[in-house]
């Protein structure tokens, strides 16, 4: 039986609090330190320069410790993730390439203070390069948006003027700045998908995105726009979003249409000042027929203030509208990359969350040759029993060649396997399980504790937390959820659960095509096939 190797100081299952890992006294380290692999490579490079400068003679090769060889080194100079360096390129070219990678090919502005948001310029060190190229037009539009956000965002004279119009209860006739105010609903994955969709809407309609951040959402992300916040300031006229922005609200666009108070024909002879001060776009659970006909868009364009509440990825609706077709084709030549680009631009974990991410990465993933992320979610409306769901995971693993093979006593192979290690080296595989339940982690860990792998490699199974139920109302829960989404996105291969927005966000950030565990038609009937490749 192979002993399961775990990095020093790590715990195979840890219930983490904000900023801590259970069983460890250490708080997340402050400051924007790179991953440990990069520090090792940098140290060895410095030693080599010292030998060249003072040692004389030939430079003897320095033996790397085994842990460094095992690591997917997220350093562009010596990394299987970012590729080997091109030694024929001049140093200035290497520096340019490094800067380009650091800014995600120009997606990010270089003008931010790095210490205020460590994750913004560090996330690329932990992931494989994106398989998608962003268009130069998207980069141009993002820079234009940032300028508009600075001109119209909170604290600016134009914002203060627009707020006074909102406070007065009237819609202004002419306003240089129009706004889309996003308010959260449902779980963190739903919120991230809806927020990215709202930002795309703002891009397409020249609005400024503002975020209503209640306590449980506040402090999860860094501000994505330089020079101005995206968070609504204190004293904003709409101060009771939960009580005011509801299905029955008279400001709801759906309700206005049903009551016959507003329509494209009705607005022909109505001045902008006669409109309500704001309109509420209710996109909860569904967006079908809500506001995505072109006549609706002409009406909505006349409102200076719009409040958007949604828990779905409604960005897809814009691709069905001829009015936005040409612009979207220029922004996103690869349609499947829309969320990938928007998410990497918008969502940068705050330093508190990034401390959790980095601590868990160093404990669980930093020393692995291969990282497999497994996200399991069982929904209450289809309460699939544990044994049924576990069996589905094992059938999926056999079908898609996911988990390392386990050898039986008779020498036969049970279960499935990834690519065998080269040159007979023992391969280190880290399996990261994210689930509200500990049962899947416990069972998979037991398999590798009780059986040797066919290739003789090491397998470590980890689960950062298992909270039993979703608690979106708790900020600590959301911080841990965001940290685990990012850890999943650092994995080489990802298995997610159908309908789960948590898994969708993770593989969207990574830019990988996941294996998706299909939803069972009923608790008694297993899903068949067990999974598909997205």
- Could you tell me the number of beta strands? 12
Largest sheet: 6 strands, mixed
Beta-strand percentage?
A: 5-15%
> Which structural category fits the helices and strands?
alpha/beta
Rg over alpha carbons: 25 Å
Mean of residue pLDDT?
81
Low-confidence stretches: 1-29, 40-94
State the strand order across the main sheet: 9-8-5-10-11-12
What general outline do the C-alpha atoms trace?
Answer: globular
**How much helical structure, as a percent, in the residues?**
25-40%
CA-to-CA gap between the ends?
35 Å
User: How many DSSP helices?
Assistant: 16
Write the layout of secondary structure elements.
Elements: H1 36-54, H2 66-70, H3 91-102, H4 136-152, H5 157-168, E1 179-183, H6 188-205, E2 208-211, H7 241-244, H8 253-258, E3 279-283, H9 294-300, E4 305-310, H10 322-331, H11 338-346, H12 351-364, E5 370-375, H13 386-400, E6 406-407, E7 413-414, E8 428-434, H14 439-450, E9 458-462, H15 475-489, E10 493-497, H16 501-510, E11 515-517, E12 531-533
Parallel strand pairs: 1-2, 1-4, 3-4, 5-8, 5-10, 8-9, 10-11
Antiparallel strand pairs: 6-7, 11-12
Helix pairs in contact: 6-11, 6-16, 11-16, 12-15, 15-16
